[in-house]
Amino acid sequence: MNLGDHVGDEPANVLENRRRVADAIGVDANRLVIINQVHGRNVVNANEATPDSSGDVIVDFGDGFAVAVLIADCLPILLVDEDSPTLAVVHAGWRGLESNVIESALAHFEHHDAVHAFLGPSISAPPIRSVRTWPSTSPRFRERSRPTRVIVPGSICAPSPSPNSSRWNHRGPPHAREQVTDGGAPFFSDRATRPCGRFALVARRVIA
Fold this sequence. Notes:
Helix content: 10-25%
Distance between the termini: 30 Å
Oligomer: single chain
Structural class: alpha+beta
């Protein structure tokens, strides 16, 4: 189930895997949006994406797309606005975090106080690197998943267990890591096995 078309896999197999993902999430394959990721902060509107689009955030404003970021160690983040159809998927490696990819994604949300964040699995031991403190205008994040590492002002490193934490704010989300990509199956890990495939965070907004 490799979804990456840049890691030496057979192109036909990758296309078939992407078709299966699109079918599983309920869209036609041409409505599954995957872009070229560059470890930066560029945001792509799903409605304007082309096969040549590059960036590390895809935003859907309720146009019925399924949006996906490819992962093999970096942190995948889903941002959802509870007060509008807007959602975004974020590919957040340490380079992206240093270049403020999260802030870049949040700039496309109108209702900052209603944004929820969902974190997927990432590498177990990211390097300690400095990142800019999130501004006080950042939304609060309610924990809905199992975060895999901590993102706090000034670092993206060691876990900080806090069983009572149920909400994020601009001071950062203290939480222990639960799932890691470099711990063996079922996830691909570029650091553990290179070359390797890519799995994905895939999201689709269904308005009842």
